[in-house]
Write a structure and sequence with these properties.
It comes from Nocardioides furvisabuli. InterPro entries: AAA+_ATPase (IPR003593), ABC_transporter-like_ATP-bd (IPR003439), ABC_transporter-like_CS (IPR017871), P-loop_NTPase (IPR027417). This protein is α/β, with parallel strands linked by helices and 232 residues long. It is built from eight helices and ten strands. It has helices at 45-52, 74-80, 96-106, 113-122, 138-150, 168-183, 195-201, 224-231, and strands at 7-16, 19-29, 34-38, 60-65, 68-69, 81-84, 156-160, 187-192, 204-209, 212-218. The mean pLDDT is 94.
Length: 232
């Protein structure tokens, strides 16, 4: 029997006052696959991700994440996803290890320490595990946000601009996290402006423009020329 898609978005609209950030997005994403969400600044990528993370409610439309309805069960959605937000999400006075402890406690995880340590090492944050994050560079904070999203091996992993300001080793570690998640059957959604990295990380691509979906295709079909044409 074919599995239903892990993420289903139908005619999603999100309004902030007078601004319609998302205006009719349709999208599906499958378990065991990674889907890139691409588009220019202001296209609606982060807002769509926030809805999928249960952080912002849909104004209208239907959104299901691992069987949970984002409009009526935001808490259920938050439980099944791992979310790396585009900005923020870290407590400046806490250390990476304290962030991991808090995350594990909130999720009632047992025996998370080894995985936590391993992820910090993979993202080259082992040496600063006990340093407050307030002094971290942008790239270090991004890397920690990916670690926190991945810690509990969520069935839906949402990475919003995970490569932003991240050095090549951090990019490699992030690509590994995406590959691991796919291998254990999770659904990955990753937003980025960077077509090349999207192609490396993801098998599927969805392009947004002005709050609408303008294309959905296999990532390999998204040539530079095609992407450029879709952005205009
Ligand atoms: N909280 C908010 N209040 C008002 N407008 C908002 C809010 N959040 C987003 N918007 C607007 O919604 C539109 C989509 O923003 P969004 O952040 O989703 O785009 P994006 O594709 O993620 O852009 P970027 O690539 O620059 O991160 C933009 O016009 C933005 O200004």
């Amino acid at each position: 029997m074919t599995q239903p898609p892990a993420v289903v978005v139908r005619d999603l609209h999100v309004r902030f006052g007078d601004v319609e950030a998302v205006s009719g997005v349709d999208l599906t994403a499958d378990s065991g696959r990674a889907t890139a969400l691409l588009g220019r600044n202001g296209a609606g990528k982060s807002t769509t991700m926030k809805v999928l993370a249960g952080v912002v409610p849909p104004t209208s439309g239907a959104v299901t994440v691992a069987g949970r309805d984002a409009a009526t069960d935001a808490l259920g959605v938050k439980r099944v996803v791992g979310y790396c937000p585009d900005v923020g999400g870290l407590v400046p006075r806490a250390t990476p290890w304290e962030h991991l402890q808090l995350s594990a406690r909130l999720r009632r995880m047992d025996a998370w320490e080894e995985r936590g340590r391993d992820l910090l090492e993979r993202f080259e944050l082992g040496d600063v595990a006990h340093r407050v994050v307030g002094g971290f560079s942008h790239g270090m904070s991004r890397r920690l946000s990916v670690v926190l999203a991945a810690l509990h091996e969520p069935s839906v992993l949402l990475l919003d601009e995970p490569f932003d300001g991240v050095d090549p080793l951090g990019v490699e570690a992030t690509l590994e996290v995406v590959a691991d998640a796919r291998a254990r059957g999770a659904c990955v959604l990753l937003s980025t402006h960077l077509r090349d990295l999207a192609l490396e990380a993801c098998g599927d691509a969805v392009v947004l423009r002005g709050g609408n979906r303008v294309a959905a295709m296999e990532a390999t079909d998204l040539t530079g020329e095609t992407y450029r044409a879709l952005l205009d």
